[in-house]
Amino acid sequence: MSGFRGVYPAIITPMTPEGDLNEAAFREVMEFNIQAGVHGFWVAGGTGESVLLDDEENMRIAEIAADQSRGRIENIMHVGAATTARAVKLAEHAARVGVESICCVPPFFYRQSDEAIVEHYRAVGAAADLPLFVYNLPQSTGVEITPELMQKIQNGVPQLRGLKHSAVTFQNVRAFYKMGLNCLIGNSMLMLPALTIGATGCVDGPPNIAPELWVEIWNAYNDGDIARAEAAQDRASEVTGLVRQFGLHTTTKAVLSYRLGIDCGVPRAPGQPLTTDQHAALIKRVEEVGLQRATVSQAGD
How many CA atoms lie within 13 A of 227 on its CB side? Predict the structure, then answer.
């Protein structure tokens, strides 16, 4: 096992034409990424539209992820919710079905005290008794996990292992490293520079669609070949730019549908699909950046 180090795509949640979870497509996307060499997944996070799914759907996703991985990679299952009770329920279920770790956004919508945030994480960590990752996504939650707040969480939550750092305060990567935490950078354009200051890997949506590019960054960096790593980061950043141009959920689902020859569906409402013209423009850009159709063998072949 990689010990929560490396490339952890924030995996999509494919949908059927009726808007339900598409289990077969979810397994296909997982397998594509596993065979490309990823080290694990950030499951049912922001890219996975978890806040637009009900608890039963999120629990089913945890079951599928654990079953499909069969111990080959590490799943970090998002159990965050607006209430502690819901997050605890999801954490208990995640542990029961066999994921390797959990992650959780801080309580959101109503601003909470540092003490309340620590207590939230203490309850969630105790419910699963698995390695716990904090999901630092202040642009969505309204709460930034600073090094000072993280120290309080670290003191109060024995299960704490690290965090996904998606805040713009890039310099805090170094502070979290010095605290002995696994810090997974949440901006796939910054994987390489983050590694140089202590990050242990990357979690983001764009690696879903081109995992081979981020795996190459990781391999080159660990081989000590910085020039090769820089070239890989340049290519990977082109893909991230493409995702940002057309929108996270619409792009990741459309590109994976194209590369794998399956239907990953469209974002759940209120998310909107691409128009016909936008889809054509996206696929043209996909071809221009060199992403080719992929072949996925059956798990275990």
Answer: 0
Contact yes or no for 51/270 (Cβ under 8 A)? no
In the chain, domain spans: 6-288
Does domain 6-288 fall under CATH 3.20.20.70? My reply is: yes
Q: Which residues contact 164 (CB under 8 A, 6 or more apart)?
A: 42, 45, 103, 133, 134, 135, 136, 137, 184, 185, 186, 203
Q: What does the pLDDT look like over 241-290, one tens digit per residue?
A: 999 999 999 999 999 999 999 999 999 999 999 999 999 999 999 999 99
Gap between the Cα atoms of 163 and 218, Å rounded: 18
Q: What does the buried/exposed string (b/e) look like for 96-113 if buried means 16 or more CB atoms within 10 Å of the residue's CB?
A: ebbbbbbbbbbbbeeeee
Cβ neighbours of residue 157 closer than 8 Å, sequence gap 6 or more: 118, 121, 122, 125, 132
Q: Is the pLDDT of residue 49 over 90?
A: yes
pTM for this prediction: 0.96
